[in-house]
Amino acid sequence: MLLQLFTTFFKIGLFCFGGGFAMIPLIEREVIERWQWINRKDFLDMLVLAQSTPGPVAVNTAVFVGYKTAGVVGAIAATLGTVLPSFIVILVVAMFFAEVRDNRYVDAAFRAMRPAVVALIIAPLVGLVRGSKWYMMAISAAVALLVWYCGLSPVYLIAAGVVVGLAIALYSYRKGVQQ
Predict the structure, then answer these.
(1) How far is Cα 179 from Cα 177, in angstroms, rounded to an integer?
(2) What is the count of structural domains for the chain?
(3) Over the stretch 43-81, which tens digit does the pLDDT of each residue have?
(4) Are 89 and 169 within one domain?
């Protein structure tokens, strides 16, 4: 299981350009559909948690998936599998960057990858929207507009979401206790 976790996340880390959000569709396909380590609901919960904790979302997701499937050692294996490819690539690029930074073919390759990276970032959003209630999509759109157009800090909106979520949970709990 540990080797399977490591190699799965190594493959995801190796073939995914564009950062953590670009890795989410691949992680989802591997851990839910291919290996069936976790179900979709748990994955979405982990994804929300991974986005709300400090650090890269793909690494945080790897930690949670690894921990859920094989405990602390699984979390370590999945995390190493996720970060090792990037570390190796960055090390190699750093060694040769001065020689290729002005190369027109390298520049063209990076420009050609941009649309794919954008698509890989949008894909998890579509996955998250699937099965969501209409009001959750409306709240998400309102929060995005507040960040983009009003310049509100996402930190304040996340904190407000935590407060509202806790208030709803407390209200539901008290209502259930009184009945």
Answers:
(1) 6
(2) 2
(3) 988 988 888 888 888 899 999 999 999 999 999 999 999
(4) no
